[in-house]
Queue: 2 jobs
Job 1
Amino acid sequence: MKTTWADRRKFGKNIENERSLYSVLDMTVKGNGLARALASAALVYAAVPCFAQGSDTTVVPFDLRTMRPIVEAYINGKGPYKFVVDTGASGTMVTAALAKALKLPQIGTVLVSAPNNPNPIRAPQHRIRKLVVGDITFFRQSATAILDEDFARSLGADGILSAADFRGYLVTFDYRKRQMLLTPGKLPEPDGENVLDFTRRELIPGVYLQVAGERVFCHLDSGSPFYIALPGRMLQTLDFEQAPKLIGEAGSITGTFAVYQAKISGDISFGKYLLSNPTVQVMDKMPYGNLGYRFFRDYLITFDFRQSRVKLQYWREAVEEGG
């Protein structure tokens, strides 16, 4: 069994002064063509686990029926429980109901907010003595409670696990095979084609796309239902083949925003890939773009969180190479 040891930082009974800030986005989208789904993005200044690395690849199957990768996890020897593995989260979260059922000790509180409305609320933070996913074990993992019951219901799981917690491994999402691969190693130098540097905005990894000649930052978010969702300002700056159509509303724990969809007049490019006149979503009030479920479905995506690199490979290319 591979073992990880969490940072042994000392937490007092209350950590409100630790400058901890979570940003959580619950995208429950209803409307033409988009099923009810959740995109979560969590920002936290928190302990980062480090790994005792093995030499083998760990294969963790996941369920995609909610358009989010959900894996089985065991907490303090009990379970299995369902957890969303989210690249748009930088900390572990559990529902308040699960924290209560497992009697997880509270170690403090953190501030929780959403990107579309930064007004924070306070949420308890708990300690998990032992969390097991596949043959990876985390010790002394901190987890923030999800207090909003609607959020918890739309999640379709018992909590969220940040993909960035698997530091030291290459984390590959293969939506076609419904599995996550954890492989010791690192990605090669960026080549501007398949391997790119990623940038963290609000501690969440993302890449820059060229959208009709404009450089646009988009989070890479496995917890999102979208394909290519652009920031709200582009409703005024982009040329569309037809007027964007309101397809639903996305709600966070602190507010809601409208989601539009339309086909753009122009190209989107990233690395060696180019999409001509694609249909995109636009998220009103959101400052950044978002690459979600439909994007992850089309590309084999590998994260190197230690080196802040990502590899994107169109799925047909991966099949041809035996991936």
Job 2
Amino acid sequence: MIMNYRKPTVFISYDIENDSDLKDALLEESEKPGSLFEVHGISNAGDHTSEKWTIDTRSKIDAADKHVVILGTSTYSDPRVAREVGLGMECNKLLLQFRIPGTNPKPMPLQKWNYVYMWEEKAFIQAFRPIELLDH
């Protein structure tokens, strides 16, 4: 049996008002040659209480392999990120939370498929392991 691999796809949740620079850095990381992951979707600035926003966001999270949360200083109190984390849990997505070295932000609620990583290359290697594809 020959095994093939692909990069995992991720949905990125972040505090839109305060952490766009961190989101941009993670998007840049995904576009580098040899990147370990592909971005499938990111937080949407729409009304997170609307049914349309919920349906669209859930669909993007569900289509991704993993759910990434960028932990900035106020991410924990952002209702949009909290809603996205809830949708990720509904979709049974692995939640990967990344924090910047030298910071200690409060993580989103810890659930059974939930990890907090330092924002560094060795953490990316661990968090974004390739997805094994089995030939039939």
